[in-house]
């Protein structure tokens, strides 16, 4: 079916293109045929004239192709490329062995051959403007947006080292070697001088490892390699741009002076620093804008795209490497994702992916097409030597650079890694586009174009296809994503918790010094400005809510995919069926069951997706937050085995809410809230209602009440009460129960406020000191904090016994 | 706070700790300032409550065990030396094969000592054995899916 579609679209395309010429010729004729139609749509102010009598009958069927030509053809090309992609994935085995870029180029070659035989010109897609202004930005945005920031920043030294120094090494090495080759008269290349060689070399040393990354990801090589290749591919464009502009400039000049080299270095810094600054600037502006968009949720994704595109264009304006706009994407992502709604978040991600895929597909496709249709100059010697030198210099470069930088790394690259890095240096479309945009005054431009095409096709096809079996054969270190023994998983988790705990105990010094500093700056300055509702970093609720929503959405997207616990699949499937039935009222116990299943699986799933960060790094804080939730759950379960599950949620977490406070900090705000809640049992309702309000969100997709109740008590300390109040009836019942229960009753009677835990505590100490209640709040609370901080499992029973005794 | 900390810790103490644990000078001073910031009672020792006041440690499923690891048998206070001694287990392993035979006792961060530390995490009653119940407790604490863990153990 795929091939049928492809051929039909192909035919359509061919029909349109020759048809285009006809239409253009016949346009004057057409205009005489339909003069009467003109007044209708050309001049509106002219009085409507009836068709001239000598003209003939009104044409029933008109075709105005030139009007729609450009968008029509563009759409057809995109469709064709996408059909090709569908076609590839029909046979799954094809994409395993042959990377997609190869297949796209191959299809492009075929189409190009067809077009060439029909003597048609392909659309000028790979012209400089179209490529750099329209096709490249989505790819850059995609790379930046989905960059794994944590491993990236931890390896940033290595990445920059390889990108900058590696590209320089490659360019200069290849350039000089090619120049020496050109000196030999036998090859007929004497007219290419050093500058031109260097320029060409700078073009082809731009590594674009898309195919390599796909393979690495599939196989699951260790994340160090992955991030180095990824980062290198991104950042060496900055160097390439500088070198390219420098050498094209110098190619015109007869002699090269040392001052020019110096200027080149200066220009590199301008490019680098300027790009980063622009990226940061636009990122912050975008984040700041999204702070105010909570009333216009529909256009939130627009800001992300417009700002990043604007940043890109401004960078192009100043001829700064626009690749550094990935900095913009990284900055933007962090703050924007906290400000926008969940739906906008998903939309942004999806659209970025779609745009990037389209761009990539089109680029490779047109690479194939234009290969056939451009003028080539083939010089065996030059091309073969180019290939040879590219290979050699890359290998040498990686070797030397790794030797130098290995001592600075905690995880060394062994020789297999280095081979993988060297072999994964595929060239891609940027190389080609740069070659295409060479100024025409270079007399051997066609040779350069041919050579760059040759090298691209060679690396993509040969290296791209062979990298997979080679990587598997030499057995490069893999990530440990596939540890599927439970024993290993348990103990790994234990060790992670241990390390995490000790690091927290030490206050996370040494390694994370800069990260800590940045974090402090972030909290104090940036988050205040850029985020709409800046809850403190330890606001567990919003993060947990977001994670839970996201995971729930992911889970529903892949019904049978990721679930590993067999019984859960079945029940989840049932739940799904239930969920699909509209407008059904959920029983409380069903909701609870749903939530249990979701949360159990979610914890596991997130463990898997943290593969890149777990092995050598700490689990990041999101896991801590989830641990907090779970600990509360388990404590709740262990303390109240018999009674209703919702009951302790009001009591226990309240006493443990200090866990969410930084030591010694913000007790006042917590106390203020509690103070407000004093005064009568009606306040209990108000308090719990407020708790529900702050937790319930209109976009909670799981519609489960339980988790929100659990979390509310933690959020109580710093909730922004801006969400609509929906106090569902089960909650109020619980509250009433709490009033009547042994807990609530004793502590409520004769006390100033309904809050059980602190009251109970003061009841403990009331025997000693009655005025404790009226004392200065922070000092009164601190010993309480200590008691609360003590093993909560032990504290509670003693409090409970103290409660009735104290009243 | 930093300046006050460094004056309370004498140079020879730093040297001793350095020799015993292998931390560097700056690391020791940093950890000392952390120690004093945790020490609310300002009596030069930490009690369990001081540890439990760290919020992240409190939410850690193994928080209690980690805290217990700092306090040797029967004691309730830990001074700075003890603090550093426990923390020394977490230094990276150094491949000092050359002086392996020369030193009398293995350094605190050797692989064996690390394993011993981890073993003691599991072994709550300190009888040098990990019983089935102790292992079960660990599993529950780290929240592996209940069904799987039970299936694994039976």
Describe this structure in words.
The complex is a heterodimer of chains A (807) and B (154). The N terminus and C terminus of chain A are likely disordered. In chain A, helix 6 packs antiparallel against helix 15, helix 11 crosses helix 12 and helix 12 packs antiparallel against helix 13. Chain A is globular. Chain A has 807 residues and is an all-alpha fold. Chain A starts with a helix and ends with a helix. Chain B has 154 residues and is mainly alpha-helical. Chain B has a single domain, classed as Orthogonal Bundle (Recoverin, domain 1), CATH 1.10.238. Chain B has ten helices and two strands, in the order αααβαααβαααα. A two-stranded antiparallel ribbon of chain B has the order 1-2. The longest helix of chain B is centred in the N-terminal third of the chain and has 14 residues. The termini of chain B are far apart. The chains are: A mainly alpha (807), B mainly alpha (154). The interface between A and B is large, with 43 and 38 residues. Chain B: Keywords: Calcium, Cell membrane, Cytoplasm, Lipoprotein, Membrane, Metal-binding, Myristate, Nucleus, Phosphoprotein, Protein transport, Repeat, Transport. Chain B: It is found in: Cell membrane; Cytoplasm; Nucleus. Chain B: InterPro entries: Calcineurin_B_homologous (IPR051875), EF-hand-dom_pair (IPR011992), EF_Hand_1_Ca_BS (IPR018247), EF_hand_dom (IPR002048). Chain B: One of its GO terms (molecular function) is calcium ion binding. Chain B: This is EF-hand domain-containing protein.
Please state the structural category of chain B: mainly alpha
- General shape of chain A: globular
Record field, number of beta strands of chain B: 2
Low-confidence parts of chain B: 1-7, 97-104, 144-154
Q: What is the CA-atom radius of gyration of chain B, in angstroms?
A: 18 Å
How confident is the prediction overall: mean pLDDT of chain A? 64
Rough outline of chain B = globular
Give the SSE string of chain B: HHHEHHHEHHHH
Percent in strands of chain B:
under 5%
Count the helices of chain A. How many? 35
Count of beta strands of chain A: 0
- Beta fraction of chain A: under 5%
Average pLDDT of chain B: 72
Gyration radius over CA of chain A: 33 Å
The CATH architecture of chain B can be named as Orthogonal Bundle
Question: pLDDT under 50 segments of chain A (min length 5)?
Answer: 1-6, 15-46, 536-542, 561-586, 601-621, 642-807
How is the biggest beta sheet of chain B arranged?
2 strands, antiparallel
What distance lies between the first and last C-alpha atoms of chain A, to the nearest angstrom?
80 Å
Main location (chain B): membrane
Protein name (chain B): EF-hand domain-containing protein
Subcellular location (chain B): Cell membrane; Cytoplasm; Nucleus
Organism (chain B): Sphaeramia orbicularis (orbiculate cardinalfish)
């Amino acid at each position: 079916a795929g091939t049928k579609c492809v051929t039909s679209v192909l035919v359509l395309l061919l029909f349109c293109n020759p048809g285009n010429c006809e239409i253009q010729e016949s346009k004057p004729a057409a205009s005489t045929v339909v003069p009467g139609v003109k007044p209708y749509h050309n001049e509106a102010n002219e009085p409507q004239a009836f068709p001239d009598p000598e003209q003939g009958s009104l044409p029933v069927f008109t075709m105005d192709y030139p009007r729609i030509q450009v968008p029509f053809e563009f759409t057809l090309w995109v469709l064709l490329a996408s059909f090709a992609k569908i076609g590839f994935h029909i046979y799954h085995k094809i994409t395993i062995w042959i990377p997609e870029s190869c297949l796209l180029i191959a299809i492009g070659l075929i189409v190009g051959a067809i077009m060439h035989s029909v003597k048609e010109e392909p659309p000028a897609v790979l012209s400089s403007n179209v490529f750099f202004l329209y096709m490249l930005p989505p790819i850059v945005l995609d790379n930046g947006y989905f960059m794994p920031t944590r491993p990236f920043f931890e390896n940033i030294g290595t990445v920059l080292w390889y990108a900058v120094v590696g590209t320089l090494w490659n360019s200069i090495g290849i350039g000089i070697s090619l120049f020496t080759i050109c000196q030999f008269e036998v090859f007929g290349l004497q007219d290419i001088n050093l500058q031109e060689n260097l320029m060409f070399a700078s073009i082809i040393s731009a590594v674009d490892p898309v195919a390599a990354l796909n393979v690495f990801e599939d196989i699951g090589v260790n994340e160090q390699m992955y991030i180095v290749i990824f980062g290198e591919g991104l950042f060496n464009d900055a160097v390439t741009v500088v070198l390219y502009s420098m050498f094209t400039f110098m190619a015109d000049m007869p002699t090269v002076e040392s001052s020019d080299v110096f200027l080149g270095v200066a220009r590199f810094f301008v490019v680098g620093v300027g790009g980063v600054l622009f990226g940061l600037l636009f990122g912050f502006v975008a984040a700041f804008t999204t702070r105010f968009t909570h009333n216009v949720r529909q256009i939130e994704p627009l800001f992300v795209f417009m700002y990043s595109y604007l940043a890109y264009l401004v960078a192009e304006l100043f001829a700064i490497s626009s690749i550094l706009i990935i900095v913009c994407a990284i900055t933007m992502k962090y703050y924007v994702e906290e400000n926008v709604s969940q739906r906008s978040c998903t939309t942004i991600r999806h659209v970025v992916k779609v745009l990037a895929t389209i761009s990539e597909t089109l680029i490779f496709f047109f690479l194939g097409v234009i290969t056939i249709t451009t003028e080539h100059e083939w010089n065996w010697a030059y091309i073969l030597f180019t290939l040879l030198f590219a290979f050699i210099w890359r290998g040498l470069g990686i070797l030397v650079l790794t030797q130098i930088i290995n001592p600075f790394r905690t995880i060394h690259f062994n020789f297999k890694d280095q081979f993988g890095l060297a072999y994964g240096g595929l060239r891609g479309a940027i190389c080609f586009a740069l070659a295409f945009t060479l100024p025409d005054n270079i007399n051997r431009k066609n040779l350069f174009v041919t050579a760059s095409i040759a090298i691209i096709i060679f690396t993509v096809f040969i290296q791209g296809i062979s990298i997979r079996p080679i990587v598997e054969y030499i057995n490069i270190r893999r990530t440990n994503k596939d540890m599927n023994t439970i024993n290993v998983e348990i103990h790994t988790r234990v060790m992670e918790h241990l390390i995490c705990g000790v690091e927290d105990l030490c206050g996370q010094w040494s390694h994370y010094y800069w990260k800590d500093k940045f974090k402090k700056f972030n909290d104090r300055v940036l988050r205040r400005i850029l985020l709409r509702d800046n809850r403190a970093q330890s606001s567990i609720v919003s993060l947990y809510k977001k994670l839970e929503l996201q995971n729930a959405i992911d889970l529903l997207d892949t019904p049978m995919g990721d679930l590993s616990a067999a019984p859960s699949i079945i029940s989840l499937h049932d739940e799904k069926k239930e969920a699909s039935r509209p407008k059904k009222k959920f029983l409380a116990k069903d909701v609870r069951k749903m939530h249990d299943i979701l949360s159990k699986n979610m914890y596991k799933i997130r463990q898997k997706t943290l593969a890149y960060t777990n092995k050598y790094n700490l689990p990041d804080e999101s896991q801590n937050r989830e641990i907090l939730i779970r600990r509360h759950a388990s404590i709740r379960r262990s303390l109240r085995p018999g009674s209703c599950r919702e009951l302790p949620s009001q009591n226990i977490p309240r006493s443990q809410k200090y866990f969410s406070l930084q030591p010694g900090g913000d007790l006042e705000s917590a106390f203020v809230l509690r103070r407000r809640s004093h005064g009568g049992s009606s306040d209990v309702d108000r308090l719990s209602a407020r708790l529900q309000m702050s937790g319930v969100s209109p976009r909670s997709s799981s519609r489960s009440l339980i988790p929100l109740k659990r979390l509310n008590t933690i959020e109580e300390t710093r909730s922004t009460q801006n969400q609509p109040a929906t106090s569902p009836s089960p909650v109020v019942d619980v509250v009433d129960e709490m009033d009547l229960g042994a807990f609530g009753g004793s502590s409520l009677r004769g006390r100033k406020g309904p809050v059980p835990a602190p009251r109970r505590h003061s009841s403990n100490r009331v025997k000693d000191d009655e005025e404790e209640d009226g004392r200065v709040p922070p000092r009164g609370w601190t010993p309480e904090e200590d008691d609360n901080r003590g093993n909560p499992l032990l504290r509670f029973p003693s409090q409970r016994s103290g409660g009735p005794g104290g009243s | 706070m930093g300046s006050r900390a460094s004056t309370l810790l004498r140079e020879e103490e730093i040297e001793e700790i350095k020799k015993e644990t292998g931390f560097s000078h700056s690391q020791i001073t940093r950890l000392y300032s952390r120690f004093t910031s945790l020490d609310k009672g300002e009596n030069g020792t930490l009690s369990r409550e001081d540890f439990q006041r760290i919020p992240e440690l409190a939410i850690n499923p193994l928080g209690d065990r980690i805290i217990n690891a700092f306090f040797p048998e029967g004691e309730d206070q830990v001074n700075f030396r003890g603090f550093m001694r426990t923390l020394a287990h977490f230094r990276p392993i150094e491949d000092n094969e050359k002086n392996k035979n020369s030193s009398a006792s293995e350094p605190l961060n050797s692989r064996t000592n690390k394993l011993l530390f981890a073993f003691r995490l599991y072994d709550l009653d300190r009888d040098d054995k990990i019983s089935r119940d102790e292992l079960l407790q660990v599993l529950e604490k780290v929240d592996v899916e209940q069904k799987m863990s039970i299936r694994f153990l039976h």
